[in-house]
Amino acid sequence: MVYVYGITDSAGLLAGPVVAGRDGLNDQPLESCALETIAAVYSRHVTNAPIPATPENAWRHERVVEWLMRERSVLPARFGTTFHDEAKLRAALGPHERELSAGLRRLAGCVELGVRVLWEPAPSVASPTAPASVSESVKPPPESGRAYMMARLAEERRRRDELERAERLVDELHTPLAQLAVDSTRRVLTTPQTLLVAAYLVPRDRTEPFRRRVEELGAAHPALRVVCTGPWPPYHFVPRLGEPPEVARG
Amino acid sequence: MNAPDALSARDASASPPSVRSPEEELTLLELLDRVLDKGVVLSGEVTLSVADVDLVYLGLRVLLSSVEAAERMRRGEPAGGA
């Protein structure tokens, strides 16, 4: 099978065995397969067994894409994209050449920066399902139903307040960063501790001002843990094949 | 140009999970969110085992929560919040 790392522009990339020696997964050499305007970079594997999604393999995939990104615009492929052989890969690329080519042009000169913000969610009020705190005050049976409802109301109120607080904080953090970016995506409260997970498409020569802004925002919110990672290949901003262009969110 | 965060974490990727620093944990999480969930999907046979993905994230979540617990303790707050 062939395992695909990414799509790049074909200009200057020779067909056949190419690039950086045995740098692919399982130490396989990298090769490329060029259409008229785009080329896929892949490695060939004797087995059809799936490549396991381990941290090491994920980093290897990433390293190949980053290597490509140094010199050219690249659309990273999702981990685990394989084809039976090069002919099948070529057949899959063909119908999307125009979309992929447009995606490469759109992302030219840009990198992706990640921002993840952890926070301390407000502690939940005595959980309605936990009997311990209620039994402490020796409630007679008729009142325990009322206590349960009160606890649920309090919990509901706490959740609403927390959501408002989260939205306010996300606005304070995300809006100024999105202004420095060509495009951005964001997800809020993906876990109770994860306030914000965002990705920003930033021109390569503007990553330092962006990082400084992240640091400033982190300093202005000492109770939050604000982490900036990257530069990454533009994973969040690749075209979705067969769909109309994605509308930027946030 | 200073080295991206991704590079320092990559060096540590060969080490057992228990010695990854909190920063490396977060960088790995950021990597997995991208590599496994984003990027171009060509209409090929995506040979990605769901069990693998669950496993790799499960390991991280455990570590991530312990990281957060450690942070809380450093700030002198009670650990019972979450």
Task: Provide an overview of this structure.
Chain A has 6 helices and 10 strands; from the N terminus they run ββββαββααβααββαβ. Chain A is an alpha+beta fold and 250 residues long. In chain A, α5 (141-178) runs antiparallel to α6. Chain B is mainly α and 82 residues long. Chain B is built from 3 helices and 1 strand. In chain B, α1 crosses α2 and α2 packs antiparallel against α3 (50-74). The longest helix of chain B is centred in the last third of the chain and has 25 residues, at 50-74. At the A-B interface, β1, α1, β6, α2 and β7 of A face α1, α2, β1 and α3 of B.
Biggest interface and its residues per chain?
A-B, 59 and 44 residues
The helix content of chain B is 55-70%
- Largest pleated sheet of chain A: 6 strands, antiparallel
What is the string of helix and strand elements of chain A?
EEEEHEEHHEHHEEHE
Low-confidence stretches of chain A: 130-134, 246-250
Number of strands of chain A: 10
Q: Beta-sheet strand percentage of chain A?
A: 25-35%
Oligomer: heterodimer
In a nutshell, what does this entry contain?
The complex is a heterodimer of chains A (250) and B (82). Chain A has 250 residues and is an alpha+beta fold. Chain A has helices at 55-71, 86-93, 97-107, 132-136, 141-178, 207-220, and strands at residues 2-9, 16-17, 30-34, 38-44, 74-76, 81-83, 110-118, 183-191, 194-203, 225-232.
Considering the chains and any ligands shown, give keywords for the structure.
heterodimer; A: about 250 residues; alpha+beta; 6-stranded antiparallel β-sheet; 4-stranded antiparallel β-sheet; 6 helices; 10 strands; about 35% helix; about 25% strand; disordered C terminus; B: about 80 residues; mainly alpha; about 55% helix; flat
